[in-house]
From TrEMBL:
EC code(s) of this entry: 2.6.1.11
Entry keyword set: Amino-acid biosynthesis, Aminotransferase, Arginine biosynthesis, Cytoplasm, Pyridoxal phosphate, Transferase
NCBIfam families: arg_catab_astC, argD, PRK01278.1, PRK05093.1, PRK12381.1
GO CC annotation terms, alphabetical: cytoplasm
Catalytic class of the enzyme: transferase
Gene Ontology MF terms in the entry: identical protein binding; N2-acetyl-L-ornithine:2-oxoglutarate 5-aminotransferase activity; pyridoxal phosphate binding
Binding site for pyridoxal 5'-phosphate: G106, A107, F139, D224, E225, V226, Q227, T282
Organism: Marinobacterium lacunae
UniProt remark on cofactor binding: Binds 1 pyridoxal phosphate per subunit.
Gene3D superfamilies found in the cross-reference section: Aspartate Aminotransferase, domain 1 (3.90.1150.10), Type I PLP-dependent aspartate aminotransferase-like (Major domain) (3.40.640.10)
Taxonomy of the source species: Bacteria, Pseudomonadati, Pseudomonadota, Gammaproteobacteria, Oceanospirillales
InterPro entries per UniProt: Ac/SucOrn_transaminase_bac, AcOrn/SuccOrn_fam, Aminotrans_3, Aminotrans_3_PPA_site, Class-III_PLP-dep_AT, PyrdxlP-dep_Trfase, PyrdxlP-dep_Trfase_major, PyrdxlP-dep_Trfase_small
This protein's name: Acetylornithine aminotransferase
Length: 406
């Protein structure tokens, strides 16, 4: 147990109020379990918002971090470093990409992708080809540029004026995109599965049609795989199972397994527009993050792990359907791999936060994607017994709320 010299009240005293965490403060994790300051145990179905791809304190990640910590932590990009080069070789060897830019987060990866798309259009066409098309309910980060490309107005309000040349159309609506795209479009950006927007998968035929439209208008296709990448969908990257190859792909979250790292992947043709001095980062590609990310990929990019994602998917869906048969709380269960959303039924609308709070009381951590969708993003290797126990706890949480819905 912790000595509790800091607590939730400390947050209100010393932190800006942009977050509103619950009273509990987790202090230790192992596998898919967490313990708070009081020693209470929780099963973790959130995994740091799809970040802890291998759970907490995975031995391969610990070993990679500790080994590199004894060598060199930071050089800046005045120099390159061996772990960054080794990770880049691993990622380009396993994907469509030929070149990589490393940074610290998903937002930074997307910022780099959007800048590169505009720079590529400027270099190869004209300054008039600068418009970016994204989708309603999309989420791409919290920098001013990425929050502007994101399709949720609530995240932009109060930060105007935002960058110009950005438009949004409905997701999975190819005719809306066809009407919006033009010779001025430099890029279309999409998530293979909208995460924050409600766990909405892209229809494969829609994704293929987006690729075709981009080709017809000489626009780049950017896949934001910050949440879907690194095995989360059941493939190493979701574009593989969609059968659509982007020009630029962004990765973060699970890539570091909890250590901050992001990456933008692209082809040599497109990457050439990021010439010397055109973009940069002080910490991006640091030896510690790259060493951990290499270890993550070594574990995730195996048949055992990727096939196991689908087994765990099926188990969670089976339990969600059984809970729904008993309590009639979900109108739809959707998603791929271990990015799953359970949309609350009409009589449960708006109660996602209540379910999360009740689940914590039962010893379960999960997420929401808006007020009406429960989001499940556990470790890719969560033990199946932890899934069963976690779903038992979810059902008990729902049972405690049920009388309010009758």
């Amino acid at each position: 147990m912790s000595d509790n010299t800091v607590n939730r009240a400390t947050f209100d005293a010393v932190m800006v109020p942009n977050y509103n965490p619950p009273a509990i403060i987790p202090v230790r994790g192992k596998g898919s379990r967490l313990w708070d300051q009081e020693g209470r145990e929780y099963i973790d179905f959130a995994a740091g918002i799809a970040v802890n791809a291998l759970g907490h304190c995975h031995p391969a990640l610990l070993n990679a971090l500790k080994t590199q910590a004894d060598k060199v932590w930071h050089l800046s990009n005045v120099f390159t470093n061996e772990p960054a080069l080794e990770l880049a070789k691993k990622m380009t060897g396993r994907t469509f990409a030929e070149q990589v830019f490393f940074c610290n987060s998903g937002a930074e990866a997307n910022e780099a992708a959007f800048k590169l798309a505009r720079k590529y259009a400027h270099d190869n066409f004209s300054g008039d080809k600068h418009e970016i098309i994204a989708f309603h309910q999309a989420f791409h980060g919290r920098t001013l540029f990425t929050v502007s490309v994101g399709g949720q107005a609530k995240y932009r309000e109060g930060f105007e004026p935002v960058p110009a040349g950005i438009s949004h159309v409905p997701f999975n609506d190819i005719e809306a995109l066809r009407a919006a795209i033009s010779e001025h479009t430099c890029a279309v950006v999409m998530e293979p599965i909208q995460g924050e927007g409600g766990v909405i998968p892209a229809d494969p035929e829609f994704a293929k049609a987006v690729r075709t439209l981009c080709d017809e208008h000489q626009a780049l296709l950017i896949f934001d795989e910050v949440q879907t990448g690194v095995g989360r969908s059941g493939a190493l990257y979701a574009y593989e199972s969609l059968g659509v190859t982007p020009d630029i792909l962004t990765s973060a979250k699970g890539l570091g397994g909890g250590f901050p790292i992001g990456a933008m992947l692209t082809t040599k043709k497109v990457g050439a527009s990021f010439g010397v001095g055109s973009h940069g980062t002080t910490y991006g590609g640091n030896p510690l993050g790259c060493s951990v990310a290499k270890a993550v990929l070594d574990v995730v990019d195996t048949p055992e792990t990727l096939d196991g994602v689908q087994r765990r998917h099926d188990l969670i869906v089976e339990r969600l359907e059984a809970i729904n048969a008993q309590h009639h709380c979900f109108s739809q269960i959707r998603g791929k791999g271990l990015l799953l959303g359970a949309e609350l039924s009409p009589r449960w609308q708006g109660r996602g936060g209540d379910v999360l709070a009740a689940a914590r009381e039962q010893g379960l951590m999960l997420l929401i994607a808006g007020p009406n969708v429960l989001r499940f993003t556990p470790s890719l290797i969560i033990p199946e017994d932890d899934i069963q126990q976690g779903m038992d706890r979810l059902e008990r949480a729902i049972e405690t709320l049920k009388p309010n819905n009758q």
